[in-house]
Amino acid sequence: MTQPTDVRGEHLRTALSLAACGVPVLPLRKGKVPFGNCRRCADNTCGGRPNMRTPGPCACPGPCHAWAAATTDPEVISCGPWQRAWLRASTVAYHPGGAGLTVVDLDNADAIAWAQATLPTTQTVPTTRGEHWLYRGAMQSANAVRPGVDIKSTMSYARWLGFGTGTMTALPDAVRALAASKPVPIRPALPAIAVPARTGGGECRHRTPVFLERGIAMAEQRIAEATSGVHHAVYRVFLAVLSAHGRCGCLTDAHVARLFSAAQAKGESARHCAEAWANARTTLGV
User: Is the pLDDT reported for residue 16 higher than 90?
Assistant: First the structure.
């Protein structure tokens, strides 16, 4: 359901106000996710901007490439492609690193208690399930640095939820250390693959251990050998795996986790892996 006109107008006013203060903004659609890429970049055929490896603005005319679309340019924010996005937006987001900020995203009461006992007090913004702690200074973003704690700064985005309370303090070494000593990423639970029932009966050949293992191993190798356009290469591999195995029900969470691990070893984030997997499933209708 679309947002009422007054809410859509409020999103745009908020975005322009933040941009005037030097905070790069972007619209989010339902589900707190960015809008899809433009036609030229659909399904990441462009390989990312460029490969989403360095901070910087996106050159596309609309809100493309997630955090890289964030801008402080009022003419861009109010232009036709962005206006159409604001009409469908559910909320306003911003690029913390682009504003020289770091957000420590505390997702539950235990995470908040840890922060209160460990980190310097700073400006605090309530969220749906926890709190955002805002610090002055940018750093590398990192997810799941400890249970219920994400760090959002460069190459990331956060919802704009207001100014909160308290006085913002300088980014402490304790937060930087969390990203520096980040453990192996905690992968999100992978959705089950909904597949149509097989017709004609019989055992699916994809379930044979040798056939399936060879397919997953080849996919891991293709990801590992990618030397450029890694984001696009990962998407194409996911597409190939789902095309071969996605409709028979033989893929398990363990298989998908192996693909995600291979992609993350090449520098992909858990979020990018999940997005590429979802995009491949949507493309194939599985």
Answer: yes
